[in-house]
Batch of 4 targets.
Target 1
Amino acid sequence: MKPAAPQVLSVFEAVAGSSLPVRVRCWDGSTAGPPSAPVAVVFRRRRALRRILWSPNELGLARAYVSGDLDVEGDLFALLDGPDVIEKVARKDLGALGRHAMARSATTFLRLGAFGPPPRPPALEVVRRRGAKHSKERDAAVVSHHYDVGNDFYRLILGPSMVYSCAYWARGEAGSLEDAQYDKLDLVCRKLGLRPGMRLLDVGCGWGSMAIHAARHYGVSVVGVTISHEQVDLARARVGEAGVADRVEIRLQDYRDVHDGPYDAISSIGMSEHVGDSQLNTYAADMMALLRPGGRLLNHAISSVAPLEDSAHSSPTFTDRYIFPDGELLPLSRVLDGLEHGGFEIRDCEGLREHYALTLRQWVANLQRSWDEAVRLVGSPRARTWLLYLTASALAFERGRIGVNQVLAVRQGERGVSGLPRTRGEWLGPDDSG
């Protein structure tokens, strides 16, 4: 019987249309590819090929990796960021190879014993979802899937700040992740013009970091809302430990159920990706209704760089099935349109794409340093899922496939009064990050 590895490598090079800078090792001990390659792809079981054959795209590759049927030895960044390796292999349907190439690949798969019924997807995969998309009940379920996996696991990845959004590397790459997250929270507070005595609503408050920072350093009263049970438990504990329980209230509450305005300012950091295009205008109207005249909204969100009509995937994706079910990355233009339809005046927009790439690489390093503990806490499949997700996301930001933006919007007062000084330097205030 012919060794498996050269045959497997030949199939994927046929899909890519060129040689691949990877080494392949298979279940029979055979190897193929350049010995000096920075990464080896290990097909531990034939089932890895069967998963890819049934889903010849990124989802099939992800299923093989998450299940442990396929492994990666070496630098995962090097594999995903090779000369368009994943773009060539994961994004192409084997059927597009043409009849001759497809027949040749099918013969190879048959010879390798890869044909058979579709393997059961890893248990972490979300397929069936109950209720209408972005209903309160369904949103609560999918948010729980992502966030209620253990606060200790998130602490391994995020570090002591427990901030799960793009940091702001004002001090350069030599600064620490904690410094950069402090500077991001401070940047948001300065953009919102927070002052003692103000009332802040933090929508999607996570583990309470923004609420604690605003109360401790700016003397404001904060209401933070999230629909993650585990986030609420830890956020309340952290608020108490920080000594700001008299100024911070953490609620288990959907943003659509907040009706105790007016607030002087609203921060929405990494939350509106869960809102969805169909609910964006409603979200904007809700935020507008909760603000006093002259109040500011800071909307910090990941964005698609593709037009909305081009951003929908015809086939299921790894991110939707494993990471953010029902999550939607909207183009910045759509976010601005939604906020303006809600009555807001857009006063500023800052792109932080490169900052998120640096943040994600720090999170990857944190996870890799604590790999054994992560596996102990959540199991190997979930740890693998997160390593793949964080690594691929870092590269997506570096290559400009997705972005992240902070949009500052204002509810005008009478006769167009915004409450903002005329220049950015004046309304942004001093920067103490240095």
Target 2
Amino acid sequence: MSTDKLILNGQTVADFMKEDMASKVAILKEKGIQPSLATILVGDDPSSATYVRMKGNACARLGVHSIKVVLSADTTTDELIQEINKLNDDPSVHGILLQHPVPNHIDERAAFDAISIEKDVDGVTTLGFALNAFGDAEFPSCTPQAIMRILDFYNIQIEGKHAVVIGRSPILGKPVSAMLLNRNATVTTCHSKTVNLEEIVKLGDIIIAAVGKPLFVKGDWIKPGAVVIDAGYNKGNVGDVDYEACFVPSAAITPVPGGVGPVTIATLIEHTIKSAYKLSENA
């Protein structure tokens, strides 16, 4: 990697991915197959509604059909699972996305695990998590996969490096830690109970911020030459990293917006197209 400052532009990565996806969609349509992604939104959280709309718009640009299932905030776990099972049984649906978070009264894990592994294009099921840990997931969690895509696109060395992941959620922190470990990085996973967090982050060659707190990671936490990946997105269009401060010591850094986000959405659509190919072959 060059010693010059490198801005890890996610839109550039996503655009590169879309070229390949567009050709695959064209091939599927020649076969009479319309790749289709179903998104389920429970309740009226405005941020979640925005994310679903963004994903729908991205699908439309690539010729992927988007099905929106909107359920009321008082939907029960059983009712949600019934809707998921309808989509599982619908051969025209190739991917299912349950928008996170769901209302507190819903058993989110039970709902996630109701999604068929063949249609778990967001990598949220327990089985998908286990397959990811073994390096065998067909559809890894989208944001972790996006992070790995960015690192690879910009030829950032992973093997032998010390990666520090801040956050341990089952759909981001934990799976990206497993992916990095599978690529022969030495991985430290930090969380809310970590003692001396700042000192641990200072040891990292690659820093993954996935904590959900705006501007949490400070510039003096970053050792000179580290690579900083900001997987957070908070109110005010800011990430988990204090970008201006962390820009100075880092060798490479993702912006927010325009970093991990576009690649996450592109990965979701890529998984849906791949699922359409696989399900059509098994039909």
Target 3
Amino acid sequence: MPIRIPDSLPAANILRQENIFIMPASRAEHQDIRPLRVLILNLMPKKIETETQLLRLLSNSALQIDVELLRIDDRPSKNTPKEHLDAFYRSFEEVKDNCYDGFIITGAPLGQIAFEEVLYWERMQTIMEWSRSHVTSTMFLCWAAHAALHHFYDLLRHLREEKLSGVYEHQVRQAAKAHPLLRGFDEYFFAPHSRYAEVRVSAIDNHPELEVLVDSEIAGLYLVGSKDGRQFFVTGHPEYDPNTIDDEYRRDIAAGIEPQIPENYYAKDDPNNPYKVTWRSHGNLLFTNWLNYHVYQLTPFDLNEANLAALSQQHAESI
């Protein structure tokens, strides 16, 4: 089954050209089924690029999914046309009374700024709190993962001496091999990272409500889950396109930052060589498993606050 998106969303044409099955909203209205409702809070500057990346991953499921796009505030964007935001994005005030099966919050280029100094930090906290009572399962990506671990669990984020940039080998934790989110995963796999900060693995290992599912000897923490299965924190970027790290690297060079060459990305670690794509199958499987086992299998058919509260109580009693 496909994802359901607005007929004129730019991502639609891109995904059709990639032979990905999507369904225009006009056609989906005639199907008598209960699709999953997934909300995406897109914090990235290039919103069209990021929404396309995420929709590509969400489309790889047998489930029909209604996707809605959310923006954090109404400030003008330097990288996304106002017409696009007005046409396809909703404000929090428009969705706050709704309930959703799944919720994805993207990263943001804020890795070197203290959370309390982020202009929309209070709004971000409000939305994260709202997700507890209005969403079955939430996935936080990169900066959002650090922000949520800080907000919900008071965990510290540490700045690195140098930006972590590249594609790194990761290992599934022995204790997590039977976790539904990791079904079908190889014991070792690759995933991209692009960040200035980290939450230490030891902090998660010492927290009673969280578990490390995947980490890396070099990149550190990668995938963390709350033990009730309703929150997942991904510190990397499984959604990245093949060229995304290259674009970031050359952007930083143009800005005079003198970045390190991304690790394990270019053939022979030479930016003049083609880049190697080694993470996309894992990224697809991660999102497919999340939708199947932690959204579809858990979500109440009648999606409302009362049923989500009952779901939370059931999880609490089973822990």
Target 4
Amino acid sequence: MPDKPIIGITMGDPASIGPEIAIKALLNQSIYDSCKPLLVGDAVVFDAIIKRLSLNASINIIKNVSEARFEFGVIDVFDLYNIEISQFNFGEISAAAGEAAFQSVKKVIELALAGDIDATVTGPINKKSINEAGHHYAGHTEIYAYLTGTRKYAMLLVEDNLKVIHVSTHVSLRQACDLVKKDRILEVVDLLHNGLISLGETNLKIGIAGLNPHAGDSGLFGTEEELEILPAIEEARRRGFDVDGPVPPDTLFAKAATGAYGGVVAMYHDQGHIPFKLTGFQWDAVKQQMKSVKGVNITMGLPIIRTSVDHGTAFEIAGKGVASADAMILAIESAVQLSKYRKQATS
């Protein structure tokens, strides 16, 4: 399998649905047809999931990537030996689980920076568990940025026609408004443009959201559009980007979902996440649980490739066998596409 990229996949929080969706994703032959996947985390947790759910798979514990077999049905696990299984319970927030989750992220980054793997995919982590373990980060994006020494980065969400990048993410709404600045908007336009190309997107038209209702309505409902967003749009056009805006957010995402834009710029976390999850998440009102969760989170601007599921840890269903692996499969597929593009671009 000389041309297939090696994809390192973290377990996420071991007490979450992360280990389950990772195993379930690797029980699809199509994953092995397109790449060489290996899990990074604690083998005892993956083994517990396989036994608990009676899954048709076995574990191959490795200490070096060169030991991986990449054989369907035999799941390679880069074992970090952080979890004491006798003291472990699915669905519980703990510092021990947070430490194990953080170490799996740290290791997969190290493997990618060393060139041992071609791309990284992350399972869901719990911010409280991570912080209880003494690692004070707002999320995966910030961990990756710090450990790779990256200053200019952004979160890009991908689901079918909707591709959303954010000016700011894990900050308060008050801070988010203050972070709407011309230079940052130009930065994420450039990151989004590059992301669309690397994902194979042919529609490179970018829609840029306003911050305020009706995109400020000529200053009646706020001045950020006139002072920061519109100047950024004009400069982006001068630089050759095909951009539209500022578009009122309640209109922008309706148009984007039908393919009017290759991608859109959201001004803050929930402005982009709410329409994105309305597109990709399906709630079963009878069973009171998600029946399908789709969507990929890509960190743009890093020296390595990082994709992720765009959903949480779902502790309430951890270890019960009902978690959907849809988003994990899509995250792996996106990592494969990005690694192929990067290889072509550097060859």
